[in-house]
Write a structure and sequence with these properties.
The structure is a single chain. The chain is an alpha/beta fold and 730 residues long. It folds into 5 domains: 19-141 and 264-296, Rossmann fold; 145-260, Rossmann fold; 378-482, 2-Layer Sandwich (Beta-Lactamase); 484-573, no CATH class; 574-730, Histidine kinase-like ATPase, C-terminal domain (Heat Shock Protein 90). Strands 2-1-3-4-5-11 form a 6-stranded parallel β-sheet. It has a 6-stranded antiparallel β-sheet with strand order 15-14-19-18-17-16, sandwiched between helices. Helix 20 packs parallel to helix 21 (618-638) and helix 21 (618-638) runs antiparallel to helix 22 (692-702). The protein is elongated.
């Protein structure tokens, strides 16, 4: 039990012990804004965990700019040794290059073995400084390049850049680092430098800069005569005196009139250093040693300075931070604006209440009169036949001139009478059905109906109706469009397509006869064989069953050929369905294969499996492919080319469409007639009607696809592509 006693007492001993001390050693003055921001960040890091701060933080300041030299460093060394002798720090934080150099040389004599965390030092500075063992921390990245890269996008007019630094050693270091970083931008900007220039002379110089100039202020810790300054105050003076915008690399300069720049906020850097110090204390020192990657500068701008120099906020790169935005009148005085508005609304409501009834009445009268006038103008002037009839009895209230002309009935004769009384007859419609429609009050949309007119003629009309309140009661407004010519043209196209298919069947007579004779001959042979087997003493039933199966297969094959012929000549309405384009292509190829063999033509059908399906009418798709194959057969035979070859190929396009290609080894299509190939009544055959390709193209387009000629006139043979959209159904 005694060996576990220290473990049980450890929490109590830790709670009673004093919190660890952390020494924050700053290179510069206590009042420097950058130091204050860094210290705020460090303290936030230690206070960010649940509960109170877990360490006591002590800040010490070398003030190396005002008190340089070995003598001052010796004084500071004695001061720190005496002050922290009773309770040395558990960790030391060096803020700035002078602090790191000072402590690296004296750590072993002042605070042996204490972890050292470094911050506010650039990577180039860190490379030239001594590093104590186990150094941790995070270098601070400052860089003018992010802003230089975006300047052409933000302000294309900028051509000259004046780089300003002071006379201190720190200022000279910044100047040298800048020279290295602007090398890649000298072909884009003209750079000038002000190194430790007298302050009054510098202000006069920036006051004379042209509109295409920019001042890049880095730092100004000391004047040429040795006076130390606060760089933030110098930024304020330069921004006030300069005729050109002043940009910077430190966020502490923002708010002084400086336009902005690519900055790494000091408070963020301090917070990161504080978190590193916390981890080192929690993990016992050396476990957390090592340098982290520096933070990335971000673009921050002063909205007031942008407005002063006319820089457009809309041109700032995405992700830029905008500070000091002036609030709008609404944001500043929202309560007063709301109160004033409410008062005005109350007064306005009182006035409107006194005049409202009269105004509404007059407006309603004017609106009604205007609406009726516009309706009459549209009604009378419309080229579409329009009639208005009551719902309760179907009697006509009014008709427009277009209706009179189309129906052959004058307005005076029609008003007050029903369609039945005027001797209109609707194909398939009974008086009872018309009364039911009137009672239902339902609207019609593009309802096609054959109407028999009083003069004995008939027209196919597309009728649309709407039930409205007119003339004080519900009335139907009926608009009729004459589609007789369109319907007749569609019927003529179907007749022409059927004639085209009949012509194709005439050309395919030999192939069809061969396709039917083959299964019929096989059926006859199998039947004779079965009779012979049946006459034997012990009929072989298995063989007879096999023969019957063959007879059934050949019968189905002959029936399929006849079905295809009947579908091609049928007048029945065809419906679209999801088809396998490869199977359709192979089926059409089988229809002409015998004829190809008779003519000495080699027919190849290259169709892959699992092609996307297409939504099409099977007969029309077969008609297009059959027309292309017949044309190809004529082409390879008319000039005696050798070899005679036709190829059917199917694949998909890059857009996911299905493409069926029919190519031949014929003479090809001359360039001068390629544009005429799809015209009606144009044919290259002496006995051709010139309708096959025109109809085929029309069928392809009605399916949402296209029929095109591929290749150029220099290549041998012709190639037609039938391209159809794929459907989702597999």
């Amino acid at each position: 039990m005694t060996r576990f006693l220290p473990l049980l007492l450890a929490p109590a001993l830790l709670g009673a012990a004093e919190r660890p001390r952390v020494l924050m050693l700053f290179s510069n003055d206590r009042l420097l804004p950058a130091n204050q921001k860094i210290e705020q960040g460090i303290r936030k890091a230690f206070a960010s965990a649940d509960g109170p701060t877990r360490a006591d933080l002590f800040g010490e300041f070398l003030d190396a700019v005002r008190f340089p030299g070995p003598g001052q460093e010796a004084v500071m060394e004695r001061y720190l040794a005496e002050r922290h002798r009773e309770q040395p720090p558990a960790a030391c934080m060096c803020i700035g290059p002078q602090a790191l150099e000072f402590l690296a040389e004296r750590r072993d004599s002042l605070f042996p073995g204490v972890p050292v965390i470094v911050g506010a030092v650039t990577p180039p500075q860190l490379d030239g400084l001594p590093r104590p063992d186990g150094l941790a921390g995070r270098p601070m990245m400052w860089d003018i390049r992010p802003l230089l890269e975006k300047l052409p996008e933000i302000r294309p007019q900028v051509r000259r850049i004046l780089v300003v630094t002071g006379a201190a050693e720190f200022d000279r270091t910044r100047r040298l680092e800048t020279v290295d970083r602007i090398e890649g931008f000298r072909n884009r900007f003209e750079f000038e430098f002000s190194d430790g220039e007298d302050l009054e002379t510098l202000k006069r110089r920036v006051g004379r800069l042209p509109e295409d100039a920019l001042v890049f202020y880095l730092s100004y810790f000391k004047t040429p005569d040795g006076r130390t300054t606060v760089p933030r105050e110098i930024a304020r003076q330069l921004a006030a005196a300069s005729a050109a915008p002043v940009v910077c690399v430190y966020d502490t300069f923002l708010g002084t009139g400086v336009l902005g720049g690519a900055v790494t906020p000091f408070e963020d850097e301090g917070f990161a250093l504080g978190m590193i110090a916390r981890r080192i204390l929690e993990e016992g020192g050396g476990a957390a040693a090592g340098l982290e990657e520096p933070g990335t500068p971000r673009l921050v701008f002063d909205a007031r300075a942008l407005d002063r120099f006319g820089w457009k906020k809309s041109r700032l790169p995405h992700g830029s931070e905008l500070r000091f935005l002036e609030p709008s009148l609404w944001e500043q005085h929202r309560t007063a604006v709301l109160a004033g508005g409410a008062m005005l609304l109350a007064q306005g409501a009182l006035i409107i209440g006194l005049l409202g009834a009269r105004a509404r009445q007059r407006a309603a009268e004017v609106k009604q009169t205007s609406s009726e006038s516009r309706f009459r103008q549209v009604f009378r002037g419309s080229p579409v036949p329009i009639s208005i009839f009551r719902q309760r009895d179907g009697r006509i209230v009014d008709v427009n001139p277009a209706w009179e002309e189309t129906m052959g009935v004058r307005r005076e004769e029609a008003v007050g009478r029903s369609h039945t009384e005027l001797r209109f007859a609707f194909e398939g419609a009974l008086e009872k059905g018309i009364q039911g429609y009137l009672a239902s009050g339902k609207a019609l949309r593009d309802f096609e109906q054959v109407i028999h007119l009083p003069d004995g003629g008939s027209r196919r009309m597309s009728v649309s109706t709407e039930l409205l309140d007119l003339y004080g009661e519900p009335c139907f407004v009926s608009m009729a469009q004459d589609v007789t010519d369109r319907h007749e043209a569609e019927e003529a196209r179907h007749q022409l397509a059927r004639a085209s298919r009949l012509g194709m069947l005439g050309e395919l007579t030999a192939s069809i006869a061969h396709e039917v004779n083959q299964p019929l001959g096989a059926i006859l042979s199998n039947t004779e064989a079965a009779e012979i087997l049946m006459d034997s003493p012990s009929p072989p039933l298995d063989e007879i069953r096999a023969i019957l199966a063959d007879i059934r297969r050949d019968d189905l094959r002959a029936g399929e050929v006849i079905r295809q012929v009947r579908s091609l000549v049928s007048r029945e309405e065809m419906k679209r369905e999801a088809l396998d384009p490869g199977r359709v292509a192979c089926g059409v190829a089988s229809m002409v294969r015998h004829d190809c063999k008779r003519r000495g033509i080699t027919l190849a059908c290259d169709v892959p499996e699992n092609l996307p399906r297409v939504s099409a009418e099977r007969v029309q798709l077969e008609q297009v492919l059959l027309n292309l194959l017949l044309n190809a057969m004529d082409a390879v035979c008319e000039t005696g080319v050798d070899p005679r070859e036709i190829r059917i190929h199917a694949d998909t396009t890059a857009a996911g469409e299905v493409r069926i290609s029919v190519s031949d080894s014929g003479p090809g299509i001359p360039e001068e007639i390629r544009d005429k190939m799809f015209e009606s009544f144009f044919s290259t055959k002496s006995d051709g009607m010139g309708l096959g390709l025109a109809l085929s193209k029309s069928i392809a387009e009605s399916h949402g696809g296209r029929l095109v000629i591929h290749g150029d006139s220099a290549s041998a043979g012709a190639c037609f592509h039938l391209i159809l959209p794929a459907c989702d159904e597999r």
